[in-house]
Amino acid sequence: MRTILVYHNPSREMLLAPPVGLAYVASAAADAGHSVRFLDLSHRRQPEAVLARALRKDRPGVVAFSVRNLDNAVHQRLESHLRAHDPLIELARRAGAQVVVGGPAVSLLGERSLDVLAADFAVLGEGEEAFPALLAALDEGRDPRPIPGVAARDETGRPTATPPRRLARFGASGLERWIDWPAYGRRGFTWPIQSKRGCALGCTYCSYPSLEGRVHRLRPTAEVVDEIEHVARVARPYTFELVDSTFNVPVEPALALCREIRRRGLLVTLTATGVNPIGATEELFAEMESAGFNSCMITPESASEQMLESYHKGFGRDAVERTAERIRRSRLACAWFFLLGGPGETEATIAESVDFIESHLDWPRCLTIIFTGVRLHPGTALARSEEAAGRLSPDEDLSRPVFYLSPDVRESWMLERINRLIARRPNVVHAGEGSPSTWRRLFERSLHTCGVPPPYWRFVPRYLAWPPIRALRERHPFVGEVGP
Q1: Class of domain 2-161 (CATH, top level)
Q2: CATH architecture of 180-475
Q3: 374-384, pLDDT tens digit by residue?
């Protein structure tokens, strides 16, 4: 049975992601003997036309779509990512193929994704075992419903699902087998590397534990560095990105990774998606620098003791302050993320975070990104608590955007406070300001041409401090409240 795996990520935000998850699935399916074509539509101006040509040429029995995000999670500038897949799925249906959906967004929705995306089957959780097993069952005419992690319809047409099974171990993604890396590299992408899955933290708003489990599943350090060494030789990306939900929790594997890279003498550039204040030690930042890291992202979400406790972050204000002091003494660039408006947020707690940003995050290598309003995702502790309080129906369709905003602070006041902060600190951005401008994209393209390693958000503070850009932001409101 011929199969086309489709990756279409419509996001135009600052942080984009190559299809590492789908690469894991494609590699597993191909290694199991299935005929697989990988169709990457991320950089195509006419994705529907590209898919239509592939359908005519291959006449596949199965077309599988990887759906990464429900939406951009920006309350003031909402963009649905689910609906961008609708015309592509319709093309596959008209071609007579069976439609399979998977990816993080599908795993969050569970069997409901069959109705939301008009699919025949869904793969929930990790797909390296479930998807090849599903293809084999369809090829042999067997019922796929008993397969762990597969959602299908029963005899009455009702969606049902078998709970997914998490892999005890996983290896390299094989991404280099499936994508045209130069097309990504020209746009400043980083090469994703997973060194672990799972998250043992209990942040109330976060969906990672429901997607990957609450137990860390660590790859052997040597194996991770083997993958980096291999990809550096065959694809030669400018920068590798450790895309674990928390790179430094636990901290010892992160230190071991840095030391192994240095021991082998690899001349690579790296960055990390998630550095948590829990394990943000001086030793960690020193080892990261020595290994070739140029930057990292830090996700405290708040600098208020009250809000850190409300979000169940597992650390307090003192850890946030120590992290800021330690990374400022390093040579690493950093992007800090704040999530304002959660349960218990007040004008006083917002003032604490704003004052922290002004006093601790005001140097040129530091970018601060603020979100206001918490996107409620299925399966999170915050969504469950809202159901228990009667403010969210158990049948609520969370494929559609539902946001939590604290009743103790007005959104208009919150945004005005942030706008005033931006006027004083141009290295601060609000997620609602919009996706990167054409000028900024040209600037980033020129950095790639000159051989500058990404991530290029490292240079955003300097760009925003450029007098014409700063004057433009001061002259116009940055972001406004969501209308009725």
Answers
A1: alpha beta
A2: Alpha-Beta Horseshoe (3.80)
A3: 999 999 999 99
